[in-house]
Amino acid sequence: MTSRKRLTPEESRKSALQAARALLIETGPQSVTLKAVASRIGRTHANLLHHFGSASGLQKALAEHLAKTVCETIIEAVHASRAGLGSAREVVDLAFDAFDREGAGALTSWMLLTGNEDALNPIISTIHELVDEIAPGEADHSGDEMHVHKDTLSLVLLALGDALIGGALAKSLGLPRDTARERAAANLEASMAQHYQR
Predict the structure, then answer these.
(1) What is the residue-wise DSSP string for 118-177?
(2) What is the DSSP code (8-state) at residue 53?
(3) CA-CA distance, 126 to 144, in Å (whole number)?
(4) How far apart are CA 31 and CA 179, in angstroms?
(5) From CA 75, how far away is CA 86, in angstroms rounded?
(6) Contact, 111 vs 119, CB < 8 A?
(7) What are the residue boundaries of the HTH tetR-type domain, all occurrences included (predicted)?
(8) pTM of the predicted structure, to 2 decimals
(9) Which pLDDT does position 194 carry in this prediction?
(10) In Å, what is the CA distance from 29 to each residue of 62, 68, 163?
(11) How does pLDDT run across 155-191, given as a tens digit for each residue?
């Protein structure tokens, strides 16, 4: 009989969140349960209860994990874009991928539908922190201190909507699948051009 490697609480939590993220991407938010995650990482249901308290707690921790991971990547892309090393489209693709391929859109809608709205707080607060990091000094260019806030709101809403119904809607309208991404990038470029010309 082989013994399992003893993990620190932090390692165990990280392992569980990675498994939850994989389940979310592979089979959807309804499969992110304590039992499924425990089975995937070879731990017990009680072990995960100890770390997360409930399935709702696990989903909230997963939302926070996803938001932080995605926002860190977006911050790097924004800084690269400002330095002339990246484009608005790259920032848009990161946001859209987070909600679509990374499962944040499905997780968001699942939490809303199951009445677990407080689990969205980590996503919302992490996006707020992202904006706070990007926004300082932005008002100096145009006098509009809410410029980055407005662009972020538009981008997140477009990315979320596209993740949920973008494919079906684009198909029904006879448009290419990435039309929403193109529109989001064009809007962001126009906003940035207007903002920096003032």
Answers:
(1) GGGHHHHHHHHHHHHHH-TTTHHHHS-TTHHHHHHHHHHHHHHHIIIIIHHHHHHTT--T
(2) S
(3) 22
(4) 30
(5) 12
(6) yes
(7) 10-70
(8) 0.76
(9) 77
(10) 10, 18, 14
(11) 888 999 999 999 999 999 999 999 999 999 998 888 8
